[in-house]
Structure formats: C-alpha cells, structure tokens
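Before relying on records like the one below, remember that each one covers exactly one chain. Contacts with other chains, cofactors or solvent are not represented anywhere in the record.
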Amino acid sequence: MQIAEELKRVLQTDDVAVLIDAQHLCVSSRGVQDINSSTVTSYYGGKFKNEFTRQEFIKYVEL
C-alpha cells in the first residue's frame, strides 16, 4: 500500500497497479529454510479495479 500510495502521489493518478513477488530471508534462512517460496503482494487502484484491465496488466507482468 505504501508503494502504491507514493506512486499515486508522484504520478498524480489513482490508476496504479503494484505487483511484488518477494522472497523473505526469514523463511529461507531460518525456520522452515524454504529457499523456493515467495510471497506475492498486490494493489490495484483506479482503472485497475476493472477485472479486464487488471487481467491485461497481469498478462504483461508474467512475460
């Protein structure tokens, strides 16, 4: 949310989509020691709340 809010402020638009796929060091180095897992976090604002627009964005992100 913080990244999306800053992008909205700087770009002066509500039409912002953020998709983050991150590996957490606490999972890979401690505890379960799973080096293959990741956490995906997303935010869709403005026009990206529309299902078609969101799916089009995701299609290009997965390239």
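The longest strand covers residues 17-22.
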